[in-house]
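Figure 2 data, in text form.
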Amino acid sequence: MTSNYPRGSEWRKWDLHVHTPYTKLHNGYGDDSDVWDMFCAEIEKSDISVFGITDYFSLDNYFLFIEKFKNKYPVSKKVFFPNIEFRIDSKNKDGDHIQLHVIFSNSLGKNELEQFFTRLKLVSTDNSTLTNKYCTNNDLSEVGYKKAMVTLEALTNQLKNDFAEGKYLIIGVSNGYGSLRPGQYDSRGDEYAKEIDKICHIFLGDESNINFYLNKISGREQYNLPPKPVLKGSDCHSFEDISQKLGKFFTWIKADPTFEGLKQIIYEPEERVYIGEEPEILQRDRGNKTKFIRSIKINQINGYNEDKDIWFKNIEIPLNPGLVAIIGNKGNGKSALTDILALCGNSHRYKDFSFLKEGKFLKDGLAKNFEAVLIWESDENINKNLSDETDLNSPERVRYLPQNFFERLTSNLETYEFEKTLEEVVFSYIPEEDRFGKSNFKELINYKKEIADREIDNIISKIKEINEIIIEKEKKNYPDYKRQLEEKLKLKNKELEERDKNKPKEVPDPTTDPNLSADLKNKQNELSKLTTDLKEIVEQINQVRHEISILKINIEELKKINKELEYLKNQIENYINTNKQVFTKYGFKIEDIIKYEINFLNIIEKIKEEENRLKELEIQLKSQKEIEGDLPLPNNERQERFNKSLAVRRENLTRQIDIIKASLSEPQKKYQQYLEDLKKWEEKKKQIDGDENTIDTIKWLKNEIEYIDRQLNNDLTNLRNERLDYSLQIFRKKKEIADNYSIFKNAADERIKQFQNILGEYNISIDVSLKINLSFYDEFLGFIDQGRKGSFYGINEGKLILEKLIKGKDINSEDGIKSLLSEFIEYLENDKREGIEQEKRYIIDQISKKKNISNFYEYIFSLSYLEPTYELKLGNKNLVQLSPGERGALLIVFYLLLDREDIPLIIDQPEENLDNESVYRILRHFIRHVKKERQVIIVTHNPNLAIVGDAEQIIFVKINKTNKNTFSFESGSIENPTINKHASDILEGTLKAFDVRRLKYLRYNYE
């Protein structure tokens, strides 16, 4: 079931000022016998939809015309209202009598109207005291139509006495003969002009009068006179007028062609009225037919036996190209209709469907028994089975904001990555020439931050290096480490003490014995000399080994330098090859711009020099057996190697010493053994005592303990500060990237400024800031063993501590970031839980055994979790800080104001988180604005959304659960009485509340 005008309020041409043949004054039609047929034919062929059939003081010609027209064109859709023109006894500044028109509802009967005229007293221009004359044919003929007048008081009082409010409209004349307007007279005249203005609902005029009566220019507003519509009419009095004026002097009105529709322009004097060739919105619709839905059909598939209920059967709903409000009681098919529209429009938000989802209409294959056809104004048909899925590889044809999506946005914005939506919107406002050929925001920002990202990577590599040093220092700062050192030192001291106790017992030198033979003395002396020589050789060998160690380090460093230079060379060459065309584009040869020279020869020669020296030294350490085992060598070269080898000389000396030792006397052998034992004892003692560079020796242990006590904390602090400096360098680079975000949003900012007069104190903005991403909390705590004592102990407790730590930090300032990073370490090294009283903790104890502390530090100090992002703000508050009502309204304004898509916008119950004040104060302008740019379909049970948005169409839907879940609908305009009653029944509030809010709803007696 639906109304006569199911598409709701539509633009039509109206001419409410057309005189018929035999009009009482200035009749130019003649009196031919076929004059009425000719007039009716002209009316029928005209493209005017609604006429005001006008005459002076009389209804005779109106009823005569209606009779003749209906007989001639019984199925015509033309609509007619009686328009009676009255002369008032007061005059304007030009001496003309004031003219007023009264248009009556065409629902009033002839007798009812004629009774009014018989009660309306007349006065005459010749006799203002005329009495007992009324607006009847006889009295008017006696007084004369040219002289007849009524008083303003008599006219208004009689109208109120005889007709219910809303059955007539008083129309003033805005300029020309019989006009009167405030601001043109003395104070007395102005008061009368204001009174005339107040009683008039509408004014007749032209384009030049519109702004005055809409209070867009001075003259009325200072008198607290509300805006009123201005209508243009042809004022035809002849066939010549019809030829020249009818269809050329008219008014576009967006309303049902009914008296209730006409009354709507009183409440919408600007939005529903247009004087001109054609409203811009009709041009919009005609030029973008692929962007407007004409209708939706829903039906059962062939062969469905209704065993799972009727649901949808032969449903066809026409849709207005403006604002469509879908209403109905809860669970009666509102979201079902929008889900189906969204499915046919290939909305990608299918996961948020509330009707077409598993557990509801998709359950047990119910949906597959139904199909829908979406018909666009371009005549394109989109056919879908209700069980079909969205094609994510095809573009969306509608923008759908289902209730589930909206609720998640208003309660947990981050889960839907609302920032990404902001990025898409910002990108849509960036002029094509500023997009650098990129197709989306991600590509553009990646292009703009490419260099900064490389610089950040370089800084991170430095952070990695310093992290390793810091970790080593922190290990030394761990109590167990110092304790271990102290225990080792005790053992070493004890070992040294025991070593002193076991010093070899001295044996006398036999050479001092006077009885020793000269031969033995000579052997003893020779042995001493050989031992001294051996000692020197061993020292030389140690020196060679040390030099070899240094040479190997040098060679490795030189090779590393060489590889780095090769990498650098490849990078430069890759850059040259990649960017050659770009340089050529601007007339450059890249080889002339980039000139470089890397001298590998010097490095290679130095490597060879060091390697040759290494070979020479390695030969000196080769034993005789190793030299003999070398590749076949000429005898002279092999001999040369023997001569150079310190190892061979050591072997020879050792052999000679052993031979002499074997020939010594027993006392000499004991003495030699003593010397060897003493030497070993001294070497071992020296080894235990060690030096500051030899690990685990007494001197090294003492030095390490002293370092821990005196210097470690200072070094650790300095290293951490250095690491902080690197992090701040990264922070600055991220701020540079954020600057690009700010530049990108300039065009979107301009869009907001365009509506600043509407926004007023409702200060909407898109802000750019660095923000910690949502995954940070899980990733940070993922490194922590929350079963170990520390600030972050406990799964839930630890997260709360972390959130508290971060809360209030200004992460968009260097001081804030420095404080945050420092406190991460502070919280790990000191237990911040209540009642623990800052107990000392150690980071290494708190890092999960499954994780790596190096990776943890890299994660924290590389700031990879800190990214530039857009935030939608109201004043200084971001979305999270707003109340649900503020947040909901702001999000709707965002989609209405900033979303540049011109495809249909479908919103399912956005008012769930709104209060009425938010709806009226904030949204009315934006709903009205966006419906001029795109088709808008909303599901609502809040009257303010339909009323303040001046919905062109209201669709009342119902599912009859007692009749096999049968879906039905009624559709029409706000002004349609049937639809209006549904609205007043279903939408929240009472009829009285509707009248107070917008005075739109019809009055019913519901008792």
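Caption note: The first helix runs from residue 35 to 45.
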